[in-house]
Specification:
Strand order of the largest sheet: 5-6-7-3-8-9
Structural class: alpha/beta
Order of helices and strands: EEEHEHEHHHEHEHEEHEHEEHHEEHEH
Number of helices: 13
Strand content: 15-25%
Number of strands: 15
Radius of gyration: 26 Å
CATH topology of the largest domain: Rossmann fold
CATH class of the largest domain: Alpha Beta
CATH architecture of the largest domain: 3-Layer(aba) Sandwich
Number of domains: 2
Distance between the termini: 44 Å
CATH superfamily of the largest domain: P-loop containing nucleotide triphosphate hydrolases
Length: 401
């Protein structure tokens, strides 16, 4: 199957994409700030980051449609500044937006696109038939594009991007807006491309998609790369094995969040805490607890107990039964005391407006410790840590437009 099994991959003994000190500026705005990365042949490489982090600007430079401001970029061993057309002839591009010709049939979209690469008509027809079979659209070959579902259009876009047997396939958020069934079908097809040696570079906002598809990835934030590695390496490096999610009654969680934000000196939390007349006033007991480095102003209230934290204080509560209260905590406790108890039950605590996350190597043991210390949250959930936990820790929880 020629169209899906490239017999040559330029740079097979080196990087398909090589960047050093790569920068992109638009006037006074720095969109990409001196980033370094390499994409190996046959690898699935991902760019993750919030809106405005620099992912799209980086992808456009790789795709030879936006000039490099500063630094070194080599794609397929060539310089985009001098060999842009030659590079583009060997790229496949799956844009985020639908750019199919809706008035043409499915097959005609592939035939027209193949002609852009000056391929013989007979060869295009052969490859189109193979590709439509690969993306499961053979039966729709003579149908117009307009009535196709979103999933079918994305599969057709991928088939179109493969018509020239690209050495490098660029995918910008390939499954945005698709239902779970369509997403999983696309994942299957992209995974098969990986198995056949096609090099993939993609951006996505779906962390599960990055975990499924990417061999390695970088996390970008504010125009720079802040982390790099495989999904498993990043999870092991930045978060614990499990996360314990606790939901306390609304008034208790609001008071806890207010106290944590005050302790972090964050003057503008993501969600404004409830005003004093909406919750019972609590004393803001900050104590000796310290912020995780880099969290101030990030929209997160990450706190860690010091090594000499008052563990002995909670030993007296072990094995006791707290009085049942509507707040979920022992009667008379302040928000600071609640926060201290949570810190003593895990390796790191993140307090959000609606729930509290305890990062721990053993979620069930931490849940038991929470219960032993007299705390009664409305709900308790133990889950494994994911790439999304890594992403939010590195980039924060603030919305960026």
């Amino acid at each position: 199957m020629t169209a899906l099994s490239p017999t040559h991959r330029p740079g097979a003994d080196g990087a398909v994409v090589h960047a050093r000190g790569l920068s992109k500026r638009f006037g006074a705005l720095t969109a990409v700030d001196a980033v370094d990365f390499d994409v190996a042949p046959g690898e699935a490489f991902g760019f993750l980051g919030p809106n405005g982090a620099g992912k799209t600007s980086t992808m456009r430079m790789i795709g030879c449609v936006s000039p490099v401001t500063e630094g070194t970029l080599r794609v397929l061993g060539m310089d985009p500044a001098t060999a842009g057309p030659r590079i583009r002839a060997r790229l496949g591009v799956v844009p985020q937006e639908n750019t199919l010709d809706n008035e043409l049939t499915v097959a005609e979209n592939l035939l027209i696109h193949g002609r852009y690469f000056d391929l013989p008509r007979g060869l295009i027809r052969q490859r189109a038939a193979e590709l439509l079979d690969f993306v499961q659209l053979t039966e729709r070959a003579k149908d117009e594009v307009e009535p196709l579902s979103g999933g079918m259009k994305r599969r057709l876009t991928i088939a179109r991007a493969l018509i020239n047997e690209p050495d490098l396939l660029l995918l910008d958020e390939p499954t945005t807006g698709l239902d779970p069934q369509a997403r999983h079908l696309l994942w299957d097809r992209l995974y098969r491309l990986k198995q056949r040696g096609v090099t993939l570079v993609l951006t996505t906002h779906y962390m599960d998609e990055a975990e499924q598809l990417c061999d390695r990835l970088v996390v970008m934030d504010r125009a720079r790369i802040v982390a790099e590695g495989s999904p498993r390496e990043l999870i092991d490096r930045y978060v614990t094995r499990e996360v314990l999610e606790l939901r306390f009654p609304a008034e208790t969680q609001a008071a806890l969040y207010t106290e944590a934000v005050a302790a972090s000196e964050d003057t503008e939390p993501d969600v404004a805490p409830l005003t004093p007349h909406e919750v019972e006033p609590v004393s803001a007991v900050v104590g000796p607890y310290a912020l995780e480095s880099g969290t101030a102003g990030s929209g997160r209230a990450d706190v860690r107990a010091p090594d000499n934290g008052p563990e002995s204080r909670w030993a007296a509560l072990d094995g006791t039964t707290a009085g049942e209260t509507a707040t979920g905590v022992p009667e008379g406790w302040s928000a600071g005391e609640l926060r201290s108890a949570l810190e003593g039950s895990s390796e790191r605590v993140e307090i959000l407006p609606d729930r509290t996350l305890l990062y721990t190597s053993d979620g069930e043991a931490s849940a038991a410790a929470v219960h032993e210390r007299g705390l009664r949250p409305d709900s308790v959930l133990v889950r494994r840590s994911t790439l999304e936990d890594v992403f939010l820790r590195l980039t924060g929880r603030r919305l960026i437009d």
